[in-house]
Amino acid sequence: MNKIAHSPHAHAPVSIGKVMGTVLLALTPATLFGFWLYGWPAINLWAVSLAAAIVGEGFAVSLQGRAVRPVLMDGSGILTAWLLAISLPPFAPWWIAALGSLFAVVISKQVFGGLGQNPFNPAMAARVMLLISFPLEMTIWVAPAPLSSAHAPDWLESLHITFMHQPLDGMASASLLGHVKTEFTRGAGLDQALAGYYAPLDALWGSRAGSLGETAALLILLGGLFLIARRIITWHAPVAMLLGVAVPALLFNMVNPNHYAGPMYHLLSGGLMLGAFFIVTDPVTSPNTATGQFIFGLGCGLLTWIIRTWGGYPEGVAFAVMLMNAATPLIDYYVNPRIYGRDRKGVSLTANKGS
Amino acid sequence: MKLFRLRGGVHPESRKELAADRAIRVLPMPGRLYVPLLQHVGAPAQPLVNVGDKVLKGQLIGAGQGVISAPIHAPTSGRVLAIGDFPAAHPSGLTAPTITIEADGEDRWLETEVASDPFALTPDEIAARVAAAGIVGMGGATFPSAVKLNLSRKNRVRTLIINGGECEPYITCDDRLMRERAAEIVEGVRLIRHAVGAIEIMVGIEENKPAALAAMQAAAMGTEVRVIAVPAMYPMGWDKQMIRALTGREVPADGRTADIGVLVHNVATAYAVRDAVRFGRPLVSRLVTVSGGSVVEPGNLEVPIGTLVETLFQYCGGFAGKPARMVLGGPMMGVELATAAVPIVKGSSGVLALTSGEIGSVQPAPCIRCSSCVRACPVGLLPLDMAAHIRAGDSTGSVALGLKDCIACGCCSFVCPSHIPLVHYFNFAKGELMEQERVKLKQEATKKLADARNERIARIARERAEAAAKRKAAREAKERAAKEAAAKAATEVV
Asked: Where does the sequence pass through the membrane (chain B) (predicted)?
């Protein structure tokens, strides 16, 4: 007996694999640029992240007695690991990447039931776990040393950095956000903190300390625009997040420019671009409707700015995203589309013969 | 003209090029026709002929029953071979009451009443002729047209919209009808207008049919009929979508189009109305698109009602390779056919034989909440949440999210990257709710009967007791009287 097929008997040429593949493609330019900027240690870290995610997810799925291949082939685990890898300090030790990836795919995702079931963004959950548990390893940044430059670590040296804990003599540096926060605690004003440390164009091109995903804000932005053009994501959440950071930054900067940095400083630093286009657009953990996504993005942006400005951590994207992830069911509960022929409350419209 | 903004919708590959440029061909009369008695929304028709009866083409063979129903006519002249169950066009392959007619090859029409000037007829007469002709919504909804006409007359509709959307991929029968028989359609439109007294008449045609648009515009020249191009987007042919595009108004969820002063008919329905009103000819044939990647020579055929689907495929050169799926209707909303030995009915716009490449079906994957379905839904529902409730066995919960407003257009399933059969979930839940409703009604009826019985028994017992009491009282009174009389007599004696 044949299984009865229900309409529609046609389908758009889309699949989860294609969606994930497109997102990975959009991440590739920024990642390759990051590889060039930070050299072999960054590549090692990325490879360890992906390998750990594949092994960990495969193990978790086989424990559930499900077929491993289709789960690994959908690309979602690789995307999570990739996002995590490019949010880590490029010279971090291998176990940071491995632990983070395993936490992301096993604890944050498979424990909840796998793809589509996790309430929190796995990459951000892993990042927050790492940041809280290993603050030292997670805050040692290095100034970029492009692969072509003389002081870039060669491949053998990179293995020492990634796998043997070789100290980063003379290379360690602070990220812009971290540097400013430290200067503030010393009582310095913004003008002193930024002197010689900040040039917006550097931020755009990535020639300053940071993770792979935050140094090249421009390439991340282009990747995001590519995803919007390919209709993988919509503009609502990204634009709202950028607004959520830029608007308060602008207002407070106007009031006290020596204490509150301006919008450009915020937009181009830290993980904001990566967060806006690749994290808050994660379909699983964000609301269903365009309005809901806008509210979600706005909340992420606002919380990011608040944490950066008044919080204990220099960067707040991961925390902000997780807090808003928790609010997603609430947003979905209250923000629904209006049904045809009904008002917002679901009551049928009344007959109106028009004029 | 300014069109109004629409919500949702998808752009499936139209595939209309397979049949769009093939002129209408008349299918040679098959030897046997299988005419189901239920080809419309409402009550099935009651057979009026007996096995062995001779019938003429257009002769009434099934009478409409009740308020919402439609009569059935013989699609050709011949002899009634059987009246009984025959497989219906339904994925289950279940049967339905059907009259089988053996064609005599003469195809002789019954004497019909021709109206020399149909516009001289009164609205009542037009409505009566449409009702007698058994015309139903030919876009696929198959709602009896006369019922709609009368409802619209009662509501004094202002706007008449003729739906030439034909948004289903592959299907081109309305397109061909508009290209080849535009003048007849326009006459039918004007007759409907005459019947309901509408002031504004618009024909909405998707802009992907330029030839049909041009033909209709030419035919409507100088009349009160306005032909308007609407965007090519599925489901443009959903009547409520067409209303919104052309008037900007929405039909109340609990109401009908007549509530906002609008009547919508399909172009093929208008064509059938013209045949019925001018020539007195009932609906006994229709245009059917035969298409799909497996069909050797796709085309558009004029087919007698009751022709088997397999006859259509054979006439179109048969199959190039075994089709992966046969579908009655369009690919978005049509039903899968388990067998091609089922009859064409009044609402059948197309039959498709699709290759596996065209179906694009793969194993469903988990929902990633991408909300593509939310963006695609023309009604404004949350398909992903509705499906989640139904999966968890909570069909009632999905009603709160708008399950009953779902039109099963298939946009959500079409765009789902996880290939989740969302519409299947929804129709399953609708069936389940209907079942619950039936059980509830049955329980209520049973309870009513039981209550009535208990009351009856109690009443009878009460009445008996009362009667007994009365009898007893009467007896006692009598005895008392007798005693008194005896005592009196005794005293008198003493």
From this structure: none
